[in-house]
Amino acid sequence: MSEQSRFMLVVSPLMENSPAFDRAAALAKAADAALHIVAFDYLEGLATAGLVNEQALEQMRVGYVERHRQWLEDQARPLRKLGVHVTTEVVWVANPLKEILIHLKEQPMAAMIKALEHESALSRLMFTPLDVHLLRECPVPLHFVSHVLHALPRRIVAAVDPFHRDGRYAGLNDRILREAAKLASICNAQLDVIYAHDLSSIGAAEFGFDNASAFFSSNAAKKLFDAQGEAFRDLAERNDIPAENQHMILGDPAKVLSSYADAYDVDLIVMGRVAHRGIGRLVGSTVEHLLYKMPCSVWVVAPESLEG
After folding, report:
1. Phi, psi of 168, deg, nearest 5
2. What is the mean pLDDT of residues 285-297?
3. What pairs with residue 268 in β-bridges?
4. Would you give the DSSP letter of residue 110?
5. Labelling 187: which of 55, 126, 231, 299 has CA 20 to 30 A away?
6. pTM value?
7. For the chain, which domains are there?
8. DSSP 3-state assignment of 27?
9. Residue 171: partners with Cβ closer than 8 Å, 6 or more residues away
10. CB 153 within 8 A of CB 183
11. Which whole-number Å values give the CA distances from 154 to 149, 151, 235, 239, 305, in the listed order?
C-alpha cells in the first residue's frame, strides 16, 4: 500500500475500546498507512429526551460529542507514539450507514475496519443490522474484527469459488487473491487458499438428471469435481500460490471455513461478496453463517461493480 493509503476505523458511540483498535493500528503501522478513527454518535435517550428544552438538549449533545472526541484523542495518543498518523472525528447522526458511505465517497480509503457486532438470530430476523448493510453496500474492502489472537494477522486464508457460474463475477476470485496476497505481504503472514466446494448445492436437472441420486451415482459428479479442481489450480497458479498452500475441500463452505480456521488458528479470512437474488451474500454461503459463526475476523472484497 502506498504512503497515501488511509484506513477508516469506525468505532462504537459508547466510548468502548475493542480489539478493532489494536488491529487497525497494527495494520496501519505495517502498511505505513494513515488511520482515521470516526465515531457516528446517536443515543436515542439523549436525542429524544422530553423533560428538558431544546436548548438544553443541544448542550447535552454537544457535551457528549466533545467528551467522545476527547476520549478518541486519548486512544489515538499511544498510536501516534508508535509512528501511526492518526486523525479522529465524531459525528452526531441518526443514520450511520448513510454517513459512512458519504465519508467513503468523499475520503477515499484503502479499507474500512470495524468491530463485528454480534446480533442474536432473533434480532437479525426482526431487522437488518448495520454490519449486514455495510457488507452489502460498502464500496471498499471491509474488515470485520472479532476473535483476535494477534493484533497483526499471522495466518491468512483466502476463500475462493473459481467455479462460480455468474459471469458478472469472473474477476472477483483474482481480486480476492490479490488482496489476500497484499495483506499477507504487509503482515509477513502465511497465506493459504481454500476452495470449499459443495456438490449438494448443484441441481441434478442442470445435467439432465431427474434426481440427485442418479447424478451422484454417475460419472457426471466426477467430471464436475475434476473440472472444479482444474479451475482452482489455474486460479491459484496464475496468482503465484504454491501448491502446498492450495486446499480444495469437499463440504459446506461455511462449515469447512469455520473448521479450518479453528483447527489452524487462522487470524483472518479474505472473502468476496456477490449479489444473490437481490440479497447480499459472500461467495459460498450466507452472510449469517459466515459473519456470525466464523472463529476469526473476516476481510470482505466487493466486486468491481456493486450493482447486482
Report:
1. -65, -20
2. 72
3. 156, 297
4. S
5. 231
6. 0.85
7. 1-115 (3.40.50.12370), 148-308 (3.40.50.620)
8. helix
9. 303, 304
10. yes
11. 9, 9, 23, 20, 31
